[in-house]
Design brief:
2 copies of one chain form a homodimer. By secondary structure, chain A is α+β, with helices and mostly antiparallel strands. Chain A folds into 2 domains: 2-283, BirA Bifunctional Protein, domain 2; 296-385, Rossmann fold, CATH 3.40.50. Chain A has helices spanning 2-7, 30-35, 55-65, 109-124, 139-148, 153-165, 172-180, 182-195, 199-210, 274-283, 306-318, 332-342, 352-357, 378-385, and strands spanning 11-12, 18-20, 38-41, 47-50, 73-82, 94-103, 132-138, 216-218, 232-238, 246-252, 267-273, 296-300, 323-326, 346-350, 359-364, 369-374. In chain A, helix 4 (109-124) crosses helix 9 (199-210), helix 5 (139-148) packs antiparallel against helix 8 (182-195) and helix 6 packs antiparallel against helix 7. Chain A is elongated.
C-alpha cells in the first residue's frame, strides 16, 4: 500500500489517535459518533475521542496549514482507527486503515487518480481485475432524483440506508414501496436508472478505460455511510461468491474544510482497512507466506564461543545481513530445529574448528546446500543461494 | 531503528494502544499510573488505559504465548505511548518509542546484545562514540549496599530518587546526609564505590570492549524509574554540553512475567523515544534533510493533455518511479516552482509537442541538466542522473 501510494506521488502524514470529540459532531455519521466512539474526559477536562476514521483529521490538518501547503496536495497514511461495536467478520474494534486523499482538484482527474490508485493496490496485492469490481455513483445525481420525487429529509435518509443495503436485501422493492408509497417508488427507480448515464460519470469511466481499468461500472445504489460526501462515491466489491461484499470505498467531499471556518477545498479520497483486505486475500488464496526479517542464525557450540559468535555477527551486520545469535545453550541439532521453526533460511555454527580455521559452513536450510567459506564471503553467498 | 533491530535478529510486533488499566498497577512506576495515564471507562464498563510504555504489554503477550514461542525470543516495535504530563523539552503527551527486548537468556550475553544494539542505532543515526556515553549499573549491587546500611524501604525509595537525579544536583552529598544521617551517608557512598567493581559488570564491559564499544562505564547513580528492573540497568547520555541529558535506557527485568501467573522468564530490553532522539540529532547537527517520496512531477500544459499525462504516469509507475501529475492548471513556470518547493528532483512536461513526437524533456531541477528521451528511457536516466 505504501509503495503504491508513493508511486502515485502521495506523501505520508501522521496524527495523534486522540482528537477533540467535537471534531466528529455533525461531520461524520451520527450513528458512529453517538454509539460507536471511544470518548472520554481527559485529566485536563477536555472531551476527547479515539479517532473512528481519518477524514476529519486530515481535513482539520489541511485547513490549519492551507496557506503553507502546495496544491494539489496528495497525502496518505496507514493509521489505526477505533469503533466500539460488536466485533464481527470484517470489523474489529481497532483496525488499521490506509487513507489516501488529494486536495485542490475540482476536475474528474482527481477521481480518476484515486480510483486508479485503489485499483493498483488491488493488483499489487495479487488480485486480477476479475477478482473485484469498482462501483461508482454520484451523490449529486441521487440528490437530483430525490428532489424530483419530492422526498422529505427523513424519507431521503431511509432511502439512502435502503440503497446502502440493497445488495444484501431480497425485498428492496417492497421496502422502498413501504417507505414512500408505490407511485413515488416507481418514479424513484426510473429516475435512478436514467441518472446512471450522466455525462460526469461517463467521462470518469472513459478516462479509466483509457488507463486499462475496465472492471468499473455505475451503480446507483452506492451511497457510502458518511454525510460529508458531495459528489462521486465509489466502492470496491469482492466478486468471489465466498466473500461477496464491499471491501472499501471513498469519494469526493468538497465542503468538509468549510466546517473549520475555511473556504472549501475540493477533495477526493478513500480508506481501505486491513481486516477486509485480509479477508479478501484469504478468500482468493493470496495471503503472503510469513517470512521473518532474520536471514541467518549463528548457532553457538559452547558458551566459550559466544564472544567469537558476537564478533562474527557484528561483521555480518555491517554487510547488512540480519543475524540472530542463538544463546539458548541447546545442542546444535536443537538450535537448527529452532531456525527451521522460525523460518530463518540460513545457519552457520561457531565452535573450536571455526575459530581455529577462520572458515565457516554456511547452510541453506530449505535446500540443504552447504558452503565452506571465510566470514567475508558469507553475505555474497547468501545472496547467490537465494538466486 | 527498524533496520538496526532487524540486523540484530529482532522481529517486529504490534499491540493495541488500549490496555486494561489493571496491567499497570503495581508493575510500573506508581507516579505514572496514579498521575500520568489516560485512563477511562469504555462502553463495556471496562477500565482501560492508553499505554504509557510498552514493557507490560510485551510481558503480557509473551506470558500468554510462552508455550508456542521459541527462546531466545527477540522482538521490537516502534509504538506510540501516552503520558498526561506537562509538555516540556524531550517530553510530549504522545510520543513514539522504539522498544527492543530479548527473552529467555540468563547470561550477560543478553545485556551485551541489547547494549550493542542501542550503540549501533546511535552510530546509524550518524553519531560518533564521543557524542554519547553508556552508563551501566546493577540493581542487585544497589540492593546489597542498601542492605549493608540497614535502610528502611522509605529511605531506599528516597535514595533511589536522589541517585536518579544526581547528575542534575549540586547538593547531592548534603541531601543524602539529610536523608539518612552523615554516618550512613558515608557508608553508603563507600559501598556504592566498591560495588562498582563487580565481577558481573566487569564481564559485561569486557565483552563490549571486545566488540569495539568503548564509550561505556559503570555509574552507581543509574537506577531507572521503573520498579520492575531486577539486574543490570543502563542509560545512554548525550555528551554535548547543549543537551547533556539521559537520552534513553533499559535493563534486565527477570520477574515481570511472574505477575501474569507464569514462571519467570529472563528478559532484557530498552526503549528509545523519538523526541529525545530528535533533540540529540538537532544538538549534533545530524537531523536528516527532508526528502519527499515523490521523484518526478509531470507538468501538464493544457487540460486536454491530462489523459496523456495519466498514461505516461502509469507507464513510469510500472517501472517503480514515484510520479505526481500536476493537475493545478497553472502556467508551466508555476508548476516548476511547485516542484522546487516540494523538493521533487525531476520534472517532465506533457504538451502537444511531446504527444506528437513521443519524446520528453526530463529535467533534473537541482543541477538544471536536461535530457530529451522517449518515455521508456526516463527511469534509467533518472537513476544515472542521481549518480
Amino acid at each position: 500500500m505504501k509503495n503504491a501510494c508513493e508511486r502515485f506521488g502521495y506523501e505520508s502524514y501522521d496524527a495523534s489517535v486522540l482528537e477533540p470529540a467535537e471534531l466528529y459532531r455533525g461531520k461524520t455519521s451520527e450513528e458512529i459518533v453517538a454509539e460507536q466512539t471511544y470518548t472520554f474526559t481527559d485529566r485536563g477536562d477536555r472531551e476527547v475521542t479515539l479517532r473512528p476514521e481519518m477524514t476529519p483529521t486530515i481535513a482539520r490538518m489541511v485547513a490549519a496549514k492551507r496557506r503553507e501547503l502546495t496544491f494539489p496536495l496528495r497525502w496518505y497514511t496507514i493509521a489505526n482507527v477505533f469503533r466500539y461495536e460488536r466485533p464481527q467478520r470484517g470489523r474489529l474494534r481497532e483496525h488499521w486503515q490506509l487513507n489516501a486523499d488529494i486536495f485542490g482538484v475540482e476536475g474528474v482527474e482527481a477521481e480518476v487518480e484515486i480510483i486508479s490508485l485503489a485499483h493498483q493496490i488491488m493488483l499489487d496485492l495479487g488480485a486480477n481485475e476479475s477478482d473485484f469490481e469498482i462501483r461508482v455513483n454520484d451523490r449529486r445525481l441521487l440528490n437530483g432524483v430525490f428532489k424530483d420525487c419530492s422526498l422529505t429529509e427523513e424519507e431521503e435518509r431511509v432511502i439512502m440506508r435502503l440503497l446502502d443495503k440493497r445488495h444484501d436485501m431480497a425485498d428492496f422493492d417492497e421496502k422502498l414501496s413501504d417507505a414512500v408509497g408505490p407511485e413515488r417508488a416507481n418514479k424513484l427507480k426510473g429516475g435512478l436508472s436514467s441518472a446512471a448515464s450522466s455525462a460526469h460519470l461517463e467521462e470518469l469511466l472513459s478516462l479509466l478505460y483509457k488507463l486499462g481499468i475496465t472492471n468499473v461500472h455505475v451503480d446507483m445504489s452506492i451511497v457510502r455511510g458518511f454525510d460529508y460526501y458531495t459528489g462521486t462515491v465509489f466502492e470496491v466489491f469482492d466478486t468471489s461468491p465466498d466473500n461477496n461484499r464491499s471491501l472499501f470505498g471513498g469519494g469526493r467531499y468538497d465542503n468538509l474544510l468549510q466546517m473549520f471556518g475555511e473556504d472549501a477545498i475540493p477533495a477526493v479520497g478513500f480508506g481501505m482497512g486491513d481486516v477486509t483486505a485480509h479477508d479478501f486475500l484469504e478468500a482468493h488464496g493470496l495471503l503472503p507466506r510469513y517470512v521473518p526479517a532474520t536471514e541467518l542464525m549463528i548457532c553457538v557450540m559452547e558458551k566459550e564461543h559466544i564472544a567469537h559468535a558476537l564478533r562474527l555477527a557484528q561483521d555480518l551486520r555491517r554487510e547488512d545481513v540480519a543475524v540472530a545469535v542463538n544463546f539458548s545453550g541447546k545442542k546444535i541439532g536443537d538450535q537448527v530445529k529452532q531456525a527451521n521453526k522460525l523460518g530463518i533460511p540460513f545457519i552457520v555454527a561457531v565452535g573450536d574448528k571455526e575459530r581455529d580455521s577462520g572458515h565457516f559452513t554456511l547452510k541453506h536450510l530449505p535446500t540443504g546446500n552447504e558452503f565452506i567459506l571465510p566470514a567475508e564471503n558469507i553475505p555474497a553467498h547468501m545472496l547467490s543461494a537465494l538466486g
